[in-house]
Structures are given as C-alpha cells and as structure tokens.
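Task: complex structure prediction.
Instruction: return structure tokens for all chains below.
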Amino acid sequence: MVLRKLPGVSASGMGLRLSQKFVFLLFLSGLVTLCFGALFFLPDSVRLKRIFLSKNESPAVTVGSDNELSKKVPVDQEHQRTGLKGVEAIVKPKVSRKPSVTHGARTVERSVGSRAQDEWSPARAHEPPARDERVTSAALNAPHGTTFSHETFKKCLLKPALGKDQGNPSDPETLKRREKVKEMMKFAWDNYKSYAWGKNELRPLTKNGHIGNMFGGLRGASIVDSLDTLYIMGLMEEYEEAKEWVQNSLDLNSNGEASLFEVNIRYVGGLLSAFYLTGAEIFKQKVLELGEKLLPAFNTPTGIPRGVINLGSSGTSWSWGWASAGSSILAEFGTLHLEFVHLSQLSGNPVFTEKVMNIRKLLNKMEKPHGLYPNFLSPVSGNWVQHHVSIGGLGDSFYEYLIKSFLMSDKTDEEAKKMYYSAMEAIETNLVQKSPGGLTYVAEWRGGILDHKMGHLACFSGGMIGIGADDGPVGQKQHYLDLAAEITHTCHESYSRSATKLGPEAFRFDGGAEATATRLSDRYYILRPEVIESYMYMWRLTHDPKYREWGWEAVEALEKHCRVDAGFSGIRDVYASTVSHDNMQQSFFLSETLKYLYLLFSDDDLLSLEDWVFNTEAHPLPVVRKTCLQEHSTRPDDGQTTLE
Ligand code: DMJ
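Output:
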C-alpha cells in the first residue's frame, strides 16, 4: 500500500491522516498477530513454545481423576491422550529403521536384544529437555548421604562372594564339566579379543567386530558384560585386560541413540557387579557417570522413561517407532529398579531410587485388566496403550524385578512382594495352561484372547517362580516349586524335540504342536540363556541331578552346533541337523549363558543366593542389608573404597 498526501486533506506529523494511520496500525497489528499465531501451528513448535512458555507456565488440563496422574499435564500431551491432534503430532518425525540383514524373519540387529525389545527403531517423541532439567555432576556428587564403604559391604555378606573354595564342586565329574564351561568362556573371550576387541560383539564367521546401534555409541559391550564372569571363573589375566580397557578406553561421552534398557542391564549392571565383586574404584566411577546420563529419560509428564535416549549432552529421549502410539515398554521401564537402587547406594544420591519408586507407585495404583499388566504404557498420559500381556518378550523382566527387588531389599520391600504375588496369581488364573500332552506353559494374552505360544525368553520364568516360592502366600511354597519345575520341564522339552537339542525362539501349543516352533521365523537360536538360567536356579533349589544333566546336554549341543573356528555363533534353524550360522556371538552369551552354566556346575556358595540377586543380564548385585551397613559404618575401622 502506498500512502500519499492528498490535496486538501489535513495531515498529521508523518504526513498521514489520522484514519490512514489507524488503518495502517490495524493492518500491522493484524500481521504481527497472524505471524505469531502461525508459529504455533507449525509442526515443530515445541521449541518456540519453550521460548515463550516456561516449564511451569504450561497451560494444563487434568488427566484422569483417580490416580497420581490426576495432575497438570501440558496441552500438547493431552492432545495425544484424547487424539485431538493425533498421536503423530507427538511421535513425529517417525524414524523407522527396519532391520536390514535378515535370517529367518528376524535379523541379528533385531534379535540381539532382549526380552524387552524386538526391533531397533526409535520414534522421536520429545524435544530435548532443557539443560537445567538434567541432574548435574555437582548434584550427583553432593554429599547426600554416607560414603559407601566396600569393606563394610563385605562384612555384611553372609558368605564370601566366591565361596570358601571358589565354588569348586567335590564331585570330579561335575568339576570336569565346570572346567569345560570355563574353557568355552576362554575360547569365546580370546576370539573376541583377537578379532573384535573394543567392538560390541564378535562376528565369529567373518572374524570381525559388530557395533550395532543399541548402545548409543558406547563400545565394548562384550567386555563390560564379561567382567564378572571372568572374575568368578578365575580367569584373572583376562579380567585384568577387561578392567584395563574399562579404565583407559570405555568412553561414556558418546552421542548416539541408546536403548535405556540395554545400557542399564548390560553396562550399568556389568559395572555395578564388577565393583561389588572386586572393590575396584574405577567401576564405581564409571557406573555413576553413566547412571547420571540416563536420568533425562525420566523427564516425561509421568516420570515413566522413554525407551531410547541420547547419551550426549542433550539428553533427548524417544519412544520406539514400533511401540504403539509412542508408548513405553513394560519390560524396559520395569527393569531398572535393581540397578538404580544400587546407584543410589553407591552415590549417596537418592535421585535414582526416587525415579524407580515413582514407576513402581504409578504401576501399583493403576487399574489392571484382570490383575494383569499390559506391555505398553503411555509415558505421557500414564494409560495402558494396548492389552497385550506376556511373561515373555516385552513383559518378562518386569515381573523378575519385582521379586528380585523384594529379595535384594533383604525381604523388606513389601510393596514389591505384594505386587509380585498378585501378578503371579493373575498370570496363573489367566495365562498358565496345560497342553493336551500334559506340558505346562504360559500363554500370551491379547485383550482376553489366548495366544498359545511361549517364547524362549519366557523360559526364565521357571527360575523366577522357583526363587519366589519361599515367600508366597502361606501353604503355596510347594505349589510354586512344582509350577517352576513344570515350566522348566516344558522348556527342556522345547530343546529335546529339536534336531540340534537347542531350543527355538518361540514354540507353540496349538494345531497339534507341543513345544515346537511351527513358523520358520521362530526356529532360530541366538545363544540365549533363559532355559539354562532356569536349570541353574532349579538345581540350587532342589538339587535334583536332572538339572545338571540338562545343562550338560546344552553344553554338548553348543559345542557341536554353535562353536566355530573363531568363537560361538547363533544358528538359524534348530530343527536342521546341518546348521546355518548367524555369525554373531552375543554379549549375553558371555555374561549369562556361560555364567549360568558355570554356576550350575559349582557349589552353591559361589555367589550364594542368600547374598546375591542376578540382574536380568546375569550380573550379580548384593542384597542390601541396611541395618548391618549402618551398624558397621559407625565403627572406626571401616575403610572407604580405595583407588586401584
Ligand atoms: C539378555 O540381554 C537379557 O537376558 C534380557 O533380559 C533378555 N534378552 C537377553 C538374553 O536373551
């Protein structure tokens, strides 16, 4: 618009008439309002909103009414809950990295992982938290409580960690078997060292290293996962190499996208147990530094962490692209408790325990369909997202951590105990089945409909139910021991019904199947530990020699089918007598499978179950005896941990 002075028209100072000025100002203010408003409709408006609305000023609505979540939740998040803007508004941009290298229906990338995750595919669900939302090193090192003394801790163990004689079994046949397992560990380690040192895993066929993308740029997963196994096996030279690598080369300043769950169970768990077993200060330093980096994942409206976190300075977190509607996974956010309680114990900083207690409280209060815990939960609204329930993948280690939290608290954590036994009751009522052939199994539940399948991952439950047998409702001990034995028997059947005597990834009990895989895509075995894990616990609980026999069958099968020139490899089809290898030596093979086998052939006082609980990656964490620790810490002769 051109503004000119018109003849005969009075004009004010700037040469404009009053009405022209008014129109101009009106136009200008309209333009400004429009531009400002438009910013809020752009897809990536969160950052701008942050500039204009401080965290505390977020407009809020009330979500729910009868639980802890009945509090202020920013409108953006409410939109996700009500679908006003749609889930996509929150989870965009959706990065969906589909697995690339397939063998069967899965890939190494996809199946590397865990009971908790099936695919690596984070969806960016949240902007980075502001820097000041992070817990700073200063806060972490603040004098929150007492300084942890390793000497005091050792006095509170009922038995020496490694037993009176390193767990040496008196029976020569068992000793021979134990030596064989030790040799397997040395072979796996030596090959990792020769061909993949510093990488996350060994590729034993191609003789190189694998990094993958689960650990956000962290390296040396096989080293950190092996520390305690090497130590308890007395492979001291190898343990020293591993320790030196942690000291000089474990770089925690990585900047990639990591699975919170995987980093926690392997790195945090591995470093914690290495510290407790050896007292070497370096492990404590590293684990506290790493623990701090995980805290931003909890910056969600509910405090339920997202699955993927950037370990760099941004602390950005995401939900998995494959998880429904930006949800978090039960087995991921429910598998932090043991490690986080120990992070608080070592640092004196209660923040770690607070984070996991918040998760616990929230889950405890929520309404549960038939008393069951579905696998997907929104970290924004705190509501269940889907009604899929499983004691295998996606759900499993949540239940494991309930009973182990109780045991690790020296049986004082009543809330964990109550939640565990109620969950067990619901699982027994709704999921536990008997096949026509008389095999007991735990089915999956999809909104009330049973899927008659059991995953290899679910086979850990034999051991879990076994260790929980003592403390259940009165008169239930034998019942739980029987159930544990029946499930372990079923899992053994899934091994013995295959050509290789190794078990498939999932087996079914429908269409005439009894503990066998019916789909090609379920036939692989990736050196997983769960079945052997249950043998180990059932041996310790019952001393029935069949568990050692079953363990030995597994050793022979591993030697025959999985051992290759340069390490151990998973196989693609357990039913084929001529095997095809997947070229991956998983880090959990060293951390779990071989450790559980070694313990199976050792005396019970090697890592006694009275003193230790194993995290879900088989890293032993000590029972916390608060009263004992306090009593000893007041005595002057108790030293602090020393630098090694
Ligand atoms: C391990 O990383 C852990 O046991 C996890 O809980 C499940 N998946 C693997 C082993 O199968």
